UniProtKB/TrEMBL annotation:
Localization of this protein: Cell membrane
Name of the protein in question: MFS transporter, putative metabolite:H+ symporter
InterPro entries assigned to the protein according to its UniProt record, in alphabetical order: MFS, MFS_dom, MFS_trans_sf, Sugar_transporter_CS
Keywords: Membrane, Transmembrane, Transmembrane helix, Transport
Main location: membrane
Signal peptide residue numbers: none
Organism: Desulfitobacterium chlororespirans DSM 11544
Length: 456
């Protein structure tokens, strides 16, 4: 129903009803997530083929994974910084263009050196896109359902993982060049850029933080055609608003993250991001290779991992029902505790169908924690350093992953398969404990209310 009621900018967006403009935005972000996820996981399917056809060692596979995470680390910083400086839209599209180009280079790399460089650069673009997409969703969508739509967008994207797994299991075995085609699929992100002209608008919260009120009015009106948008009060400074300030220096953002008001929140989020990221990628990035080393054939390893990967979209779709309940805090605690127990059990079983069955459940739950984490993290800080702060916190998991990816073969050779998975299980127990004791409930609240630590 149309109304002339004068509202603040945050109410315009927080109280909106989902419409076709919101759904088009979600489709674009789902496409962006799709090609990013293909890029992330295609290497886990390709790695066993490289050991067979290129003759590379487990240590070289670990080096590639570590370099990828170095790229992701840089992408977290760069994407967060750029999104706060030049805007969400430009950074999102630029990141997709960047990783799409280097995905194609990766697929047709003539030697190991170029492969390694291209994989690193692909990682930069992937994580730059992810950081801005997380923030983009929470800033544009209604407060009551933003977590649900984050989960659904990611879940839709994750449908590509079992599909790419099935494709890899048919294309790679017996074909020395088949792995190249799998890697090139991640280069199809140009689809998003082609659709973006009429489907993608800048975040009005970012525009307001820069004092660009007329542009913000136009964007809000685009998403809220049911009301007359008027930001006169914000522009004149007669209502409470976030100050339009430049927070573009990394050291300034770090100071804000660890100042008295945000320190506890930041430490809880670092604990969540570090252990979830490291545990997830230690498990799934290495799963095909570890199963192969454990005694299963290349074909059987790829087949088992492909079946387990069907848990990814299921996990995110299921998380959509729980993410806006319990303030996000409670679902994270419950998921983390269950994963911790199941991962220890996974490391003790040898029957293929038990491995697939338990791995499938773990995949569902770990992907659920990931999407819960994305919303939880993106909601935490004020607009003027939300993206930079999100990028820095998100990068902490990538920092440890650089070393963790290289440590997997060492742990495996020194202590064995079961100990490796027990270590991963302990990481998720830490997530459950720390989030349960010190975590904040955020779901359904205005981003400005969450950022105001005096009301937390």
């Amino acid at each position: 129903m149309a109304t002339n009621e004068l509202m603040t900018s945050t109410r315009y967006m927080d109280e909106a009803t989902m419409n076709k403009s919101h759904y088009k935005f979600l489709i674009l972000l789902a496409f962006g997530y799709t090609f990013e996820q293909i890029d992330v996981f295609s290497f886990s399917f390709v790695a066993p083929a490289l050991t067979e056809y290129w003759g590379v060692s487990m240590e070289w596979i670990g080096l590639v994974n570590s370099c990828t995470f170095i790229g992701m680390l840089l992408g977290c910083w760069l994407g967060g910084w750029l999104a706060d400086r030049i805007g969400r839209r430009k950074t999102f599209l630029g990141s997709i263009l960047f990783f799409s180009i280097f995905s194609l280079v990766n697929g047709w790399a003539p030697n190991q050196e170029i492969f390694l460089i291209a994989r690193t650069l692909t990682g930069i673009g992937m994580m730059s896109m992810v950081v801005v997409a997380m923030v983009y969703i929470v800033e544009l969508l209604p407060a009551a359902s933003r977590g649900k739509w984050q989960a659904i967008a990611l879940a839709t994207a994750l449908l590509s993982i079992p599909l790419i797994g099935q494709l890899a299991s048919h294309v790679i075995p017996g074909n020395p060049e088949g792995w190249r085609w799998i890697l090139c699929i991640g280069g199809l992100g140009f689809i998003v850029i082609a659709l973006s002209k009429n489907w993608l608008q800048e975040s009005p919260r970012w525009l307001i933080s820069k004092g660009r009120f007329k542009e913000a009015e136009a964007v809000i009106q685009f998403y809220r055609p049911d009301v007359k948008v008027d930001l006169t009060l914000e522009a004149s400074g007669q209502v409470k608003e976030e100050k339009a300030q430049e927070t573009t220096k990394t050291f300034e953002v770090l100071r804000l993250l660890f100042c008295k008001e945000y320190r506890k929140k930041t430490l809880v989020l670092i604990n969540l991001v570090v252990w979830n990221t490291v545990g997830y990628f230690m498990f799934f990035a290495w799963m095909p290779t570890l199963l192969n080393e454990y005694g299963f054939s290349l074909e059987d390893s790829l087949w088992m991992v492909a079946l387990v990967s069907f848990g990814s979209p299921i996990g995110n779709y299921l998380a959509a029902f729980f993410t806006d309940k319990g303030g996000r805090k409670i679902p994270i605690v419950v998921y983390g505790a269950i994963i911790g127990v199941l991962t220890v059990i996974f490391g003790t079983v040898k029957a293929p169908m038990l491995i697939v069955g338990i791995g499938f459940i773990i995949r569902i739950l770990m992907d659920g924690v990931f999407v819960l984490m994305w919303s939880y993290l993106a909601e935490a800080y004020p607009t003027h350093f939300r993206s930079s702060g999100t990028g820095i916190i998100f990068s902490t998991g990538r920092i440890l992953n650089v070393g963790a990816m290289a440590m997997v073969p060492i742990i495996y050779k020194q202590f064995g398969y079961s100990v490796l998975f027990a270590i991963i299980g302990a990481m998720y127990i830490m997530i459950a404990l720390v989030t349960g004791i010190w975590g904040e409930r955020t779901a359904g609240r205005s981003l400005e209310d969450i950022a105001d630590t005096k009301t937390a």
